[in-house]
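Tokens as discussed.
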């Protein structure tokens, strides 16, 4: 009679479970991954390691700035390193590392910044505190979403709650996002310029210095290239620079590092001061005041609630009422 005896691997030094409380491992735990990062609030005083070896015969040791409990680690501001050394039955060693970053109490930086509808002219970066966003001319309000690095931070937008929609009564609206550190010692201000596209009205002829060299029309939300100072529609520039970062007009090469372009405030002001005509009533007005005029114009087109026809506002209460 022949018996086969199968022995389990004696060199298994894997962990089957690894958690940190409070905190979330990044990346998600996997036995084959040995290095993790965790970001914790400035209010965190300590954290607890919860782990279990895959092999019941293996042992582990937690190394770090331990507290009274073997699995509790005291946290200092900044980087804290926790090592979990696993020893397999045959003596094979494997080390898991958790790098815990405790945020400083005087930190006043966002981790992200977005808006809805629309998007910023560039992805959020911690070192940049001023942004621009281009919106459709008919957008009446927008919600800015500042994401705090530390839940203990205080954030307001022009003194209001961050989730409160921002009214856009004019072609340009500037808002200030105020971030206060948990210990209330530091304040950082982010500035967002919300700019509406013009409504498509064009002066005739278009001034040469305000004309886009790509589409030959009046610049729409112009952006100026850093390397040469030439300006183009933001959309035109975005399309051409997908394949070539040089200037579409003079072929000047871009800088080695971003930013590659900027908003030209002087050019923007010229565009907003242009005289245009309301397409409802042909009244001349500045482009910056066009939106306000359009929503109040007696000749604006509205849908009649009775017959669902599109008619002039001025006729709804008179001959079209019945």
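Sequence:
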């Amino acid at each position: 009679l022949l018996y086969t005896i199968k022995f389990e691997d004696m060199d298994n030094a894997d962990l089957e479970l690894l958690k940190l409380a409070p905190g979330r491992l990044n990346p998600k735990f996997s036995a084959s991954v040995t290095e993790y990062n965790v970001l914790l609030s400035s209010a965190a005083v300590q954290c607890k390691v919860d782990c279990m070896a895959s092999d019941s015969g293996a042992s582990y040791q937690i190394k770090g700035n331990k507290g009274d409990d073997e699995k509790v680690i005291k946290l200092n501001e900044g980087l804290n390193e926790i090592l979990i050394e696993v020893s397999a039955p045959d003596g094979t060693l494997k080390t898991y590392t958790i790098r815990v970053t405790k945020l400083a109490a005087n930190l006043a930086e966002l981790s992200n910044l977005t808006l809805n509808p629309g998007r910023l002219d560039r992805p959020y970066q911690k070192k940049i505190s001023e942004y621009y966003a281009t919106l459709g001319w008919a957008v009446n309000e927008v919600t800015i979403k500042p994401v705090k690095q530390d839940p203990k931070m205080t954030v307001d937008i022009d003194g209001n709650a961050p989730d409160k929609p921002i009214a856009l009564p004019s072609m340009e609206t500037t808002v200030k996002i105020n971030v206060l550190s948990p210990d209330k010692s530091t304040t950082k201000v982010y500035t967002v310029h919300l700019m509406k596209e013009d409504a498509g009205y064009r002066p005739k002829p278009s001034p040469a210095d305000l004309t886009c060299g790509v589409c030959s029309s009046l610049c729409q939300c112009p952006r100026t290239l850093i390397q040469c100072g030439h300006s183009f529609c933001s959309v035109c520039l975005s399309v051409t620079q997908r394949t070539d970062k040089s200037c579409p007009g003079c072929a000047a090469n871009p800088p080695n590092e971003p930013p590659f372009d900027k908003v030209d405030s002087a050019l923007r002001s010229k565009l907003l001061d242009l005289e245009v005509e309301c397409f409802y009533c042909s009244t001349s007005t500045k482009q910056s005041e066009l939106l306000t005029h359009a929503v109040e114009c007696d000749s604006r087109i509205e849908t009649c609630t009775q017959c669902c026809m599109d008619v002039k506002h001025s006729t709804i209460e008179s001959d079209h009422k019945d």
